[in-house]
Amino acid sequence: MKRSFKIVPVDSGDGGSVYTIQFDGESWSEFDKFLKNKLVREERDACERLISKLGAMTNEYGFEGELFKEKEGKRNDYVVALSKSFPIFRTIEPGKKT
Predict the structure, then answer these.
(1) What distance, in Å, lies between the first and last C-alpha atoms of the chain?
(2) Which of 6, 2, 9, 16 is nearest to 65 (CA)?
(3) What angle do CA 72, 94, 71 make, to 5 degrees?
(4) Which positions ≥6 away from 97 have C-beta within 8 Å?
(5) Residue 26: which residues within 8 A CB-CB, separation 6 or more?
(6) pLDDT digits over 48-57, tens only?
(7) Are 15 and 58 in contact (CB under 8 A)?
(8) Helical H segments across 25-95, by residue range
C-alpha cells in the first residue's frame, strides 16, 4: 500500500536545512513522532545531543560527507549515521550552545 506524504522543514540556517516527511492525514511529522517516542524520551541526554548536533549543522557547519558514517544501513537504503569522530560532535554537551 502506497502512502502519500509531504516534505516539511524541521530547521534551516546558514549551514543548510533539515527536512522530514509527514504522511497525509497525520498531525505529526515523522521527526516529531521520533522525538515523542517513549524510548527516545527515556534517553534524554542522547536526544538533546542529537538536536544540538543537527542545530550546529544547520546553523554553522553544514552537511559535509565527513560528518556522516555512510554505508551504515542496508544496501541502497540511504541510511547514514552521524559521525562521532568529527570534532564538533565530541564537544557539544546537552543544553550548551556551540
Answers:
(1) 43
(2) 16
(3) 5
(4) none
(5) none
(6) 888 888 888 8
(7) yes
(8) 30-36, 38-42, 44-56, 87-91
User: Mean pLDDT throughout 72-93?
Assistant: 68
pLDDT bracket for residue 27 (50, 70, 90): very high
Length of the chain: 98
Retrieve residue 75's grid coordinates. Answer: 544496501
Q: What is the DSSP letter of 74?
A: S
Residue holding cell 515523542?
A: 36
Cell of 70: 555512510
User: Higher model confidence: residue 67 or residue 27?
Assistant: 27
| Type of residue found at 96 | K
- Site of grid cell 524520551: 41
> Which has more confidence, 81 or 51?
51
Closest CA to 39 of 47, 30, 31: 47
